[in-house]
């Protein structure tokens, strides 16, 4: 089967999951994050189901020599938490907490969610471009021998 077709079907399945779980609804997400106000714990079940599905997937993957449609498994090359990861996570979490969108859900909902989703999508793309341009100037720690 064509890898592009597999990627398309996987993306559509992921998007459908976001829609069914209402992760594309920023009000639902913001209510989940508002633990001292109008808290909605239902997304905890979505996260729990995602963790279980990932655990099952990793368990099954460990039994295979290679993925079905790739020559080998490829995992992350970095395994340590560093400042870049922490700062990026803080920026991501702040944006998600302020507006209720993150990249996957905004892509799944921007066609019908109106101006707020489009504004977020444009801001996200501008931020990604700005990082891409400035990344080469950011200091990096190198391993000392």
What's the quick description here?
With 145 residues, this protein is mainly alpha-helical.
Global morphology:
globular
Q: Spans of 5+ residues with little confidence (pLDDT < 50)?
A: none
What's the total number of strands? 0
Mean pLDDT: 86
Strand content: under 5%
Ends: how far apart?
Answer: 46 Å
Secondary-structure element order, N to C: HHHHHH
Instruction: Determine the structural class based on helices, strands and strand pairing.
Output: mainly alpha
**What does the main sheet amount to?**
none
Count of discrete domains: 1
Total of DSSP H or I helical runs spanning 4+ residues: 6
Q: Compute the gyration radius: what is it?
A: 18 Å
The percent of residues in helical segments reads 55-70%
């Amino acid at each position: 089967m064509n890898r592009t077709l597999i990627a398309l079907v996987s993306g559509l399945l992921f998007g459908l999951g976001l829609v069914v779980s209402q992760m594309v609804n920023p009000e639902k997400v913001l209510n989940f994050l508002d633990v001292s106000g109008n808290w909605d714990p239902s997304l905890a079940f979505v996260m729990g189901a995602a963790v279980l599905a990932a655990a099952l997937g990793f368990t099954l993957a460990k039994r295979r020599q290679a993925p079905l449609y790739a020559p080998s498994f490829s995992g992350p090359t970095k395994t340590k938490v560093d400042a870049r990861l922490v700062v990026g996570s803080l920026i991501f979490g702040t944006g998600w907490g302020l507006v209720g969108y993150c990249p996957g859900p905004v892509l799944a909902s921007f066609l019908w969610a109106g101006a707020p989703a489009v504004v977020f999508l444009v801001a996200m793309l501008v931020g990604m471009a700005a990082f891409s341009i400035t990344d080469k100037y950011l200091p990096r720690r190198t391993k000392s021998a």
